[in-house]
Amino acid sequence: MRKNDKEILRILLDDHIDTDKYGLGINSFRKIRQDLGLERSRRQNHTLASIREDIQALREIFPLAGAREMTSLLFHERNKSVERSLVFEYFEVYESKLMKERKARRLKRRRFWAAGVNDLIAVDQHDKWKRFGLALHVGEDPFCGVIQWLRVWHNNNNPKLVLSYYLDWAEEFGYIPLITQSDLGSENYGIANAQSILRQWHDPRLEGSVQHRWMRSKKNVKPEIAWSQFRRRFTPGFEAIIQKGVTAGWYDTTRPLDVLVFRWLFIPWLQVEINAYVNRINNTRKRADRNKVLPHGPPNDIFTCPERYGCLDFKVKVQPEAFQYVREKFAPASDPVFELVPPIFAQYAGQAYIEIGSPQLNGANIWNVYRDILQRLHGITTADGSQDYVDAVDEWQVSESLQDQGGEHDSVPYPLIEGRELFGGDEQPRDDGSVYLGGVNEGWGLDIELEERLDQMDEADEFEPDELQGGLVFSEDEEDLEGLEERDDW
């Protein structure tokens, strides 16, 4: 999260060390950090020469990364802590044209209001890679900006699959938000049904209500922003890698064997890269913005410790048996949609991968590995006792054909649970014209009790006006902010 020594020490003392028995001072902590080899940018003392090779390698995968993004990439991907001023200097020397292009961009400001962490989770699908046979899905907590999941698969419109993403995340943490939010579409029926049942399971007063908000006017804004950032920060380099195989004729989505090998090899590799992207985004403090009312800080830090930022947490703890019930009812693990490829095919592809030496995959070699596996699988015939493999490919091809023609696999597996909808939203604006889209008090927003809790948290804040706290400087002097981004402890 790029926190300075004082911030890290404060978290250790507050959350992880029994201060009645033990103590830890700033000097001792710094000695421990240095012994672990965790040096800051000044001690690492990088130069243009020491970062040039790394930036050139990163530029192949992240061609549009600016100074802020490149600094983060160097830290998370190359374990190098580099001052942003040095990255700016590198750009001025080696990438002056790209720097002018980035400065020409103009931001459009939009306003979003949320009540606290776990007020809602907004979900959305992304179809820009459908031409490659890849489909993406995201879930985000809009209040803190943390991406809860970003998944790639060969499908993103099956409600069982989409629900499994949500349940995987919720079961890991043991709780759910007050409501979920999505665009209209049957692919979101699973999440809407499960969310309503789980809320009613633990609060009988909600019986007969729908704890999911449908965005009927194309206003599921926060996930769209996440996709916009993904398209700029992650997509270009990886899309170029995939397009290379299509252009060369190595991968054709009309050839079943091509599709199966591509899925088996590329989807797990891309998911690893996407997970690294999500981890980097969630642990990177957003750009300082004086117009922003929501808290400033690394999204993961705000999400896990909202009280540290003077925020409320609305999470609803869920019993394990409740998770098990909705999973078995709406997203059973036996459904074929959860198969990357047919199991028999996966066995033969895995054997072929072992035979070529099980190479570590990266953007430079993945197409060579794909072609080697494809060549070996082409040689499998019924004559050498591989009838089960051939049958699996044939059955898969028939199943995919039925789905493309709108067959039984395309139908909605269960109806949408009906009930009274949440208050608020576009249909019920407040007296001042503002709109609340969350789930506090079934959509009405903060009440007097919750507002008093927020006031008490504000009163407990003992920081001086100019003290650096959580990445936000409390100062009315605009000049105090100049150059702050270049400080080692920002």
From TrEMBL:
Residues 457-467, 475-490 have a biased composition (Acidic residues). Residues 116-292 form the Integrase core domain. Pfam families: rva_4. This is Integrase core domain-containing protein. InterPro entries: Integrase_dom_put. Residues 453-490 are annotated as: Disordered. It comes from the Eukaryota. It comes from Hebeloma cylindrosporum.
